[in-house]
Specification:
387 residues; alpha+beta; Helix Hairpins; HSP40/DNAj peptide-binding domain; 3 domains; four-stranded mixed β-sheet; three-stranded mixed β-sheet; 10 helices; 25% strand; elongated
């Protein structure tokens, strides 16, 4: 080795990393060809750079201190400059320069996911339904089959980046050349250019089409439930694989039944006499909103409700297992029928007389008012039913 690296940097043999870095920076600013026009400035700059490369690397420094060649055959007087180290490597590490090519990005890319909102009836959400949907998405171009090039042609290597997908920019500074890599403006990073694009898709490899799609809505879905259809979304650029299609459920309000989770609630109004004496009711089911073909079996047309004698307005009759089928898991929730007692507002003379007679028999002609009640309110009973 013709030069002493410690002497080149002007440091002692036990110099630490910080001392080596300060010495190198000082010499680099003095010797860089941009600021020093001496004939030997460039060679001396290379020498101190190689010296710093060796002494800043513990393994190379140990080999050098033992009298070996830390550059693996490269000369210390400048011949080793650039053999695994250069000032550009440092700048690349700090500024993301293009010292190593990332390569062109693929022209074929996965498509985006798509979202479609579907409005269905409560019965359809509860018991499931099959729907035909019209979907507008990007599909593979049938003319070029996704290549983007016209028939008989194909993409050619970009003449600007020569297929790398990026171009190098070099900027000189006091501390060396700063190299950065940018996406090639000619090919947009693909590394190739479609000189004769397909007339149908304009080189994109895909076109928008309306297509029909069958979706099966499982029993038990609720407002906001999303059903994933894999591979039914947007086809990607260059005819790439399609994303997924998500069908978001929007459940319409029902005129009779309300739903919370797998529970169903409805109200039934009965006259005062029926609540007092008790009665039996046959009410239409939620299933009866659907046909046998939609359900897969004949729907039960009615469900039976027994109103016990003395039922108060707001009382709830619970029918176990008559609610909504569970989306995950077997069985169904419950149906809660809330009874509303209707007080007659128009009475003829005979009815009024009978009610006066009943009041006299029950000693209720002048009843005492009671503040408070042990009976829960209608809203309290609804909340309890949902629980």
């Amino acid at each position: 080795m013709a030069n002493d690296y410690y002497d080149l940097l002007g440091v002692s043999r036990d110099a630490g990393a910080d001392e080596l870095k300060k010495a190198y920076r000082r010499l680099a600013r003095q010797l860089h060809p941009d600021v020093n026009d001496a004939p030997d400035a460039a060679d001396r700059f290379k020498e101190v750079t190689v010296a710093y490369e060796v002494l800043s690397d513990p393994q190379k420094r140990a080999v050098y201190d033992r009298g070996g060649n830390p550059l693996g055959g490269g000369g210390a007087g400048g011949a080793g400059f650039g053999q695994g180290f250069s000032f550009d490597d440092i700048m690349d590490a700090f500024f993301g320069g293009g010292g190593s090519q990332r390569g062109p990005r693929p022209r074929t890319q996965r498509g985006q996911d798509a979202l479609l909102r579907l409005r269905i009836e409560l019965a359809e959400a509860a018991f499931g339904v099959t729907r035909e949907l019209a979907v507008d998405t990007a599909v593979v171009c049938s003319t070029c089959e996704g290549s983007g090039a016209a028939e008989g042609s194909s993409p050619v290597t970009c003449s600007t980046c020569h297929g790398h997908g990026e171009v190098q920019h070099v900027q000189r500074s006091l501390l060396g050349d700063i190299r950065t890599a940018r996406t090639c403006p000619t090919c947009q990073g693909f590394g190739s250019v479609i000189t004769d694009p397909c007339a149908e898709c304009g080189g994109d490899g895909r076109v928008r089409r309306r297509r029909s799609l069958t979706v099966t809505i499982p029993a038990g879905v609720d407002q906001g439930t999303r059903i994933q259809l894999q591979g039914e979304g947007e086809v990607g650029h260059g005819g790439g694989p399609a994303g997924d299609l998500y069908v978001e459920i929007d459940v319409a309000k029902h005129p009779v039944f309300a739903r919370q989770g797998d529970q169903l609630v409805c109200q039934v109004t009965v006259p005062m006499t029926a609540a007092a004496l008790g009665t039996h009711l046959d009410l239409p089911t939620l299933e009866s909103d659907l046909t046998a073909e939609e359900l897969g079996h004949e729907p039960a047309p009615t469900f039976a409700v027994d109103v016990q004698a003395g039922t108060q307005s707001g009382d709830t009759v619970t029918l176990r297992g008559e609610g909504v089928p569970r989306l995950r898991g077997p069985g169904r929730g419950d149906l809660h029928v809330q009874v509303v007692v209707e007080t007659p507002s128009r009475l003829d003379e005979e009815q009024r007389a009978l009610l006066h007679q009943l009041a006299a028999l029950r000693d209720e002609e002048r009843p005492e008012a009671r503040l408070g009640s042990n009976h829960k309110s209608v809203f309290g009973r609804i909340k309890e039913a949902f629980r």
